[in-house]
Design goal:
By secondary structure, the chain is mainly alpha-helical. The protein is built from eleven helices and no strands. Helix 1 runs antiparallel to helix 8. The longest helix has 30 residues. The chain is globular and about 65 Å long.
Length: 268
């Protein structure tokens, strides 16, 4: 079954969606959308370094994304405005990455594939890495769920309960870096933030509990991957952007349905 490139591509998209959806809920709750974008942009520098050093692209992207995320987390508490800091670091990382790529002599690099994804080129090893990373992120979220949720809702309450908010922030940062590293092959650095934010935002108006929102976000992301791949195959459109476009349509439908449901409850 895995000999079919469309099957591998679809499974890769679902794997990324299952991890990005629940993680994206925390990104939405904490208003960290730009944080995810900055971490994703840094991955291009990781790709350039991994090719220059002849190491795994996944390892290079993970290392740089993690360094970027940790640096932003540490600097944010030292008087820098978060939006300004993220703006500077996101664009600087992307620029340095693109400059580093230009110095790679003798290495053929399809930059568009890393910017917008090349899900159809996913191989068996890539698929194994994507699912391993997705399962690792899901395991991390299940392990730290209650602590992460408490720290997200109220840091003072978390501290009073014996939970270290900074530690939970680092756990979230690690999960974000892993998702960026595994998703770069699927949707590319410019669309990773969309897969983190849109399914979670679509699940929000339809959910009554945080756990329900996380499960629904994963489902919406997986459905986006399935429908996006189907649409890409039928209409010969780019696969990664097609997945994100379907997610955006589902977001609009979910918000419309949420509005109807709220009006129905008020009328009752």
């Amino acid at each position: 079954m895995l000999d079919d490139f469309l099957v591998r591509a679809t499974l890769a998209g679902i794997g990324v969606a299952l991890a990005a959806g629940p993680l994206g809920c925390f990104v939405v709750w904490r208003r960290m959308a730009y944080f995810g974008d900055a971490t994703a942009h840094a991955a291009i520098l990781g790709v350039a370094l991994s090719l220059a050093l002849s190491i795994s692209v996944f390892a290079g992207a993970l290392a740089v994304a993690l360094i970027m995320a940790v640096a932003v987390t540490l600097l944010a508490g030292r008087g820098y405005a978060m939006d300004t800091l993220l703006g500077v670091m996101a664009h600087a990382a992307l620029a340095f990455g693109l400059v580093a790529v230009s110095f790679l002599n003798g290495i053929q690099l399809d930059l568009m594939a890393y910017l917008f994804g090349d899900i159809l080129a996913v191989g068996r090893v890539d698929l194994a890495v994507i699912w391993a990373g997705a399962l690792l992120v899901l395991g991390l979220l299940l392990w730290r769920w209650q602590a992460l949720l408490t720290a997200t809702l109220n840091q003072d309450l978390a501290t009073a309960s014996g939970i270290n908010p900074a530690r939970e922030q680092m756990a979230l940062t690690l999960g974000l870096a892993i998702v960026v590293a595994v998703a770069i092959k699927v949707v590319g650095v410019l669309l990773i933030a969309a897969m983190l934010i849109i399914p979670a935002a679509a699940a929000r108006p339809l959910s009554r509990t945080p756990e329900g929102m996380a499960v629904m976000a994963a489902g919406i992301g997986a459905l986006s991957a399935l429908l996006g791949m189907r649409g890409s195959y039928l209409y010969d459109t780019p696969a990664g952007p097609s997945i994100v476009a379907v997610a955006a349509v589902l977001f609009a439908v979910a918000n419309l349905a949420g509005t109807v449901m709220r009006r129905g409850r008020r009328g009752a």
